[in-house]
């Protein structure tokens, strides 16, 4: 069996009447970069909170290196950036990093951490004076301060501009390249596509898909068929259709062959025909859209 660093075994969690997680099983091998995807309220943050020992499961169990994440020794090997950034607003950035580093036997020197996450030069600033994006970058950087074996990042780049997001990606990739395990949630599908080697799709508290980016993309079995045409008759198997002002038509279908045959049979004068795999975003929408449930 591969070297599993984190496991959820039949994990359930409710909040009152709300079932946030419903018998979730998830094995995370050491060194993997996993993206958790799911619509709002799917249960992603709840799962992360259980993995990092902030909450207890109602049923089942979570393990980090075979142990309960609530134990101090286990906590020391994990890093976390929660969805809501909570920084000590009156402390300076450098002091905050020192404070966090003091909890660990062999921390990353703060200067190195700042460099890695593009925070150099902000050491003397009070956390409360940082911009929203700078606070977010600091909170993510601090998850790596204790040289964790595994980090859990809940929407690490929300609110960041493109530059800052790419900087964070570099930091996350560098950690992963050194063998670190990363579990991140994101609403930016291109982020998961850019970073993760495995995608776990969660919906209504359950894991509905688990695979590589390519597998998830293909799972809905959809193709995007595009061409330029002046008129468009009714065509077989079209799930969605868009047309821009230049006459570029984009159709989503589960049977591109039949669609193209239909185009030819109907005598449509099309040009620039392209048939492509769907993007992760297309697959994600198809998987989690209740009215497309039969596709999943
Ligand atoms: N402390 C809480 N008290 C009551 N309900 C909660 C609590 N935390 C989460 N929930 C509910 O549990 C469900 C799962 O929430 P969770 O935050 O895990 O989802 P999520 O996938 O992280 O969503 P988002 O993408 O919006 O962050 C939701 O219905 C949410 O309203």
From TrEMBL:
Name the Pfam families for this protein: ABC_tran (PF00005)
Task: List the Gene Ontology MF annotations in alphabetical order.
Answer: ATP binding; ATP hydrolysis activity
* One Gene Ontology term from the biological process aspect of the record: response to antibiotic
ABC transporter domain sequence ranges? 6-229
Cellular component GO terms held in the UniProt record: plasma membrane
User: Where is it mostly found?
Assistant: membrane
Q: Which domain of life is it from?
A: Bacteria
Which CDD domains does this UniProt record tie to the protein?
ABC_DR_subfamily_A
Q: Which UniProt keywords apply?
A: Antibiotic resistance, ATP-binding, Nucleotide-binding, Transport
User: Where would you find this protein in the cell?
Assistant: Cell membrane
**What is its membrane topology?**
Peripheral membrane protein
Q: What is this protein called?
A: ABC-2 type transport system ATP-binding protein
Q: Which organism is it from?
A: Jiangella mangrovi
């Amino acid at each position: 069996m591969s070297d599993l660093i984190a496991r959820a075994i039949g994990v359930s969690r409710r909040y009152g009447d709300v079932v946030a997680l419903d018998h979730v099983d998830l094995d995370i091998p050491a060194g993997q970069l996993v993206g958790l995807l799911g619509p709002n309220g799917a249960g992603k943050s709840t799962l992360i909170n259980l993995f990092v020992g902030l909450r207890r499961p109602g049923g089942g169990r979570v393990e980090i290196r075979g142990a309960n994440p609530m134990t101090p020794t286990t906590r020391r090997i994990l890093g976390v950036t929660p969805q809501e950034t909570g920084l000590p607003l009156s402390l300076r950035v450098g002091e905050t990093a020192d404070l966090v580093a003091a909890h660990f036997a062999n921390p990353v020197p703060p200067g190195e951490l700042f460099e890695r996450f593009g925070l150099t030069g902000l050491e003397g600033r009070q956390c409360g004076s940082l911009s929203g994006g700078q606070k977010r970058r600091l909170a993510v950087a601090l998850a790596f301060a204790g040289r964790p074996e595994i980090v859990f990042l809940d929407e690490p780049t929300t609110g960041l501009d493109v530059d800052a997001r790419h900087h964070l990606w570099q930091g996350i990739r560098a950690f992963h390249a050194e063998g670190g395990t990363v579990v991140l949630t994101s609403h930016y599908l291109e982020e998961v596509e850019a970073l993760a080697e495995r995608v776990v799709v969660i919906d209504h508290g359950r894991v509905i898909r688990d695979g590589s980016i390519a597998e998830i993309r293909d799972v809905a079995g959809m193709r995007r068929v595009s061409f330029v045409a002046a008129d468009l008759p009714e065509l077989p198997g079209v799930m969605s259709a868009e047309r821009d002002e230049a006459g570029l038509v984009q159709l989503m279908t589960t049977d591109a062959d039949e669609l193209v045959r239909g185009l030819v049979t109907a005598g449509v004068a099309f040009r620039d025909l392209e048939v492509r795999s769907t993007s992760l975003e297309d697959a994600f929408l198809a998987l989690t859209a209740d009215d497309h449930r039969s596709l999943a």
